[in-house]
Amino acid sequence: MTTSFAPLTVAIGDLIAHPANVRSNSPETYDPENIAHLKASIAVLGLLQPLLVQKLDGKYAVLAGGRRHAALKELVADKAAKGFTAKTKVECRLVPEDCDVTTALSLAENITQAPMNAIDEFEAFARMMEIDGQTPETIAKTFGTTVSAVKGRLRYGLIHPDIRAAARAKVITLDTMKAFAEHPSQEVQREVFEALTKEDSYLQAYTVRQALKSRGVQVSDDIGAFVRADYEARGGAVAADLLEEHSVLEDAALVETILLEKLGVAAEEARIKLGFAWADAMVRYDYATMADYGRVYPGPIEPDEAAQKRVDEITAELEKLQLEMEDEGLEDDAYNALYDRVDALEEEARDLQEAYSAEDLARSGVIASWQGGQITLHVGLVRPEDTVKEAGSRGSSANPTEEEAPDPGEITYPASLAEDLKTERAMALGAAMALHPEATLDLTLFKLVSDVLASGMSVTQAIKIDARKEYRSHAKMDEIDETSLEQVAAAHDALDLSWLDDSRSPADQFAAFRALEAGEKAKLVAYATASTTQSCFARDRQRDSLMHDFEIEIMPDIRAHWTPNAALFNRFKKAWLLKILGEDLGLAQEAVTLASSSKKEIVAFCDKLFAEPFATLTDAQRAAVAAWCPPMMQTAGLAFDEAEPTAETPQPDSEVAQAA
């Protein structure tokens, strides 16, 4: 329609607002902040679309294009903008004075100027850089936005073409497409995309991000930042991203190797300095695994003459520092510096007056782990076998229950299997937390305020309220039961992420977040908290009563989120499988029959049994199959005797659990 109107050029100073413009009653539309990007674009590219005007009282009234008109006036007023004055003429289209459809024309232009399709916008930015040779900085200037916002759009525009095509065809959602930008390598993106879609299953953003995690470590991750220099020195491949923090160290195995080496060096240095017998390193210090370790502590000693002299000097300096800290006019930085000095002096004084005994040093050691973004040393640890052997030694944590060691014939879980079972349990717990947002919100807020307001130790170490996902490591991640993954993915898809828009400023994102309903916020908090759950076995009420009771409330039965499968049974010995079938599940006859079969056949039998319990099972056997899991994985929420198995099932405090 507009093409039939006569073209003409009009001086900016001769343009006025038209009363029939549908946006004329919305002054916020013309606020300088709202037209800043348009002003920047016109300054660089000129007026790309003519204004629609009508002669009115000797002037040209802008019927359609009010925001462009406002941007032009801003450029005239801006002395720094070159080439724009009141006499500068711009392209227009003239609507006859007797036209009676002016309001319809204005409305038509405004409603048909729909926002550009998101994928089109991402690809347009990418073409400007790849084909036109522009930089994120020049693109940002053209569109009046920030460089970081441009880079965010560019990242999506550089996603593998096959994945963008799938999003355009609505085979996957835009959010799922954006998830592939977590890894900057198009080849990796394509490989993950093909692997996740080969079974024609619905692809979710959550599963994409989980899959990409196994393909490297981002340099912004605290571990990535810590090992990066050594990693690059050894020739480790780095997938560079437009946003540096999203660049990826692609060789995850090399990253872990370097980290363990660094942790090992720190542990060995501490061992030599303190005189311990052994040193070890682990990426994540797992308190559940280390619960069976003892610990020795330094005892008081009589300092020699030189040491006593230093203690006296420290005492005198501490008294002086205390007087200085009582000065109410002291600045915060000065006070904190004095406080740090006091801490250092008190620690030095303790070291001069305390020491480990020779027998404790001979059996104890130090473990270095990665915790809170730094190396943490855990000193004075006594391994379980040394704790039992040296029961009653000074300063030791001897076996408090004085129970006998497990029967050698009992099932004992190797360390690698125990670690993976803890990972699976943490995943199941995370799913339960995500499915109980109100309870998880209460837990999160309680821990947050308790840790801040209460004195003493944290109420629980089981969750981390530090906005960082817990890394899930597992030797058989591709083979484990996917129930909890699917539940978490469904919970993620139900989240309202409308506020999470990379093109918005943090302030705008926060405003949109605050506008969410309480229930939506609860889901977001629950999902975030669930993502921080650490690998664990069932909690001990005495060690962590909070999480012990909370897990019982939200996950009375882990089997609602996890099912044993062939991946687990393959890692059991043949004798264990027969023992579980005969004693735990009441399938004694089947165990006898299978005793002459290969382990592969027994694994297949167990896998089918748990996937879909046989119709021939008795009620007691069916209940036992429905309830069974390695005892240290189940909370106390579901008593094993509820399943009424034919044979007694080991309880979490049994020898089997303790052996694990």
From TrEMBL:
InterPro entries: Chromosome_partition/occlusion (IPR050336), HTH_ParB/Spo0J (IPR041468), ParB/Sulfiredoxin_sf (IPR036086), ParB_N (IPR003115)
Protein's GO biological process: chromosome segregation
SUPFAM superfamilies named among the record's database cross-references: KorB DNA-binding domain-like, ParB/Sulfiredoxin
Cellular component per GO, a single term: chromosome
Keyword line: Coiled coil
Region span, Disordered: 387-410
Coiled coil start-end: 304-362
Top-level taxonomic group: Bacteria
A Pfam cross-reference name: ParB_N
Start and end residues of each ParB-like N-terminal domain: 8-111
PANTHER family with a match to the protein in the record: CHROMOSOME 2-PARTITIONING PROTEIN PARB-RELATED, CHROMOSOME-PARTITIONING PROTEIN PARB-RELATED
Protein name: Chromosome partitioning protein, ParB family
Protein species of origin: Marinovum algicola
Lineage: Bacteria, Pseudomonadati, Pseudomonadota, Alphaproteobacteria, Rhodobacterales
